[in-house]
UniProtKB/TrEMBL annotation:
This is Solute carrier family 12 member 6-like. It is a multi-pass membrane protein. Its main location: membrane. Keywords: Membrane, Transmembrane, Transmembrane helix. GO terms for molecular function: potassium:chloride symporter activity. GO terms for cellular component: plasma membrane; synapse.
């Protein structure tokens, strides 16, 4: 077979946007290929060597499942509504503005990716064709570590948001006596912190982590 070297990061002026903007859903087991011929993207019982193989069948529903967790940070503010001076006014306004802002930011990323990266790299989920590197880290300035460290801090931040929001939500449910057995978690410390709810939330999180 002929071996062809392709440039993976083409840039905004390349015109690749129109090639990437359309749907390109793949099925598990198919080969990532720059061709519409089944002979190129279907294994057809042949052994695969260094080809990039699709690991999961994709669809619009799967993409929504990927996008949705990106904007769940909005709930971190709603869960702490008890700290707001005027919750009835602030929650609707703040939530709608947060949804609008985050949606614009994340969808802009997708459009910039589509206008910058080669189609094959876009379909290469784990970056096997570029040595297992993150595609966005390859264009980060001034160094790839900006993205790697930023991703780590973002992950820690998201976890900490959940650790502060979930106990308050549990405490609110306990105060409203919706589930009577949760009554002991309605109490707060002298500073107004839901210490009991925080402890049980942390235990649930640790158990889930240890299972994994």
């Amino acid at each position: 077979h002929n071996l062809t070297l392709r440039k993976s990061i083409l840039g905004l002026a390349s015109g690749v946007f129109m090639e990437n903007i359309g749907p390109q859903y793949k099925e598990a087991g198919q080969i990532v290929a720059a061709s519409d011929s089944p002979d190129d993207y279907e294994p057809l019982g042949n052994p695969t060597y260094n080809q990039v193989i699709v690991d999961i069948t994709t669809s619009f529903t799967v993409l929504v499942g990927i996008f949705f967790p990106s904007v769940t940070g909005i709930m971190a503010g709603s869960n702490r509504s008890g700290d707001l001076a005027d919750a009835q006014k602030s929650i609707p306004t703040g939530t709608l503005m947060a949804i609008f802002t985050t949606s614009v930011v994340y969808l802009s990323y997708l459009l910039f990716f589509a206008a910058t990266y080669d189609t094959l790299l876009m379909l290469d989920k784990f970056g096997y064709s570029v040595g297992g590197k993150l595609a966005i880290a390859s264009v980060a300035w001034p160094n790839k570590w900006v993205i790697l460290i930023g991703s780590l801090l973002s992950t820690i931040g998201a976890g900490m948001q959940s650790m502060t929001g979930a106990p308050r939500l549990l405490q609110a449910i306990a105060k409203d006596n919706i589930v009577p057995i949760l009554g002991p978690f309605a109490k707060s410390t002298a500073r107004g912190e839901p210490f009991r709810a925080l402890c049980v939330t942390a235990c649930i999180c640790f158990i889930a982590i240890l299972i994994g």
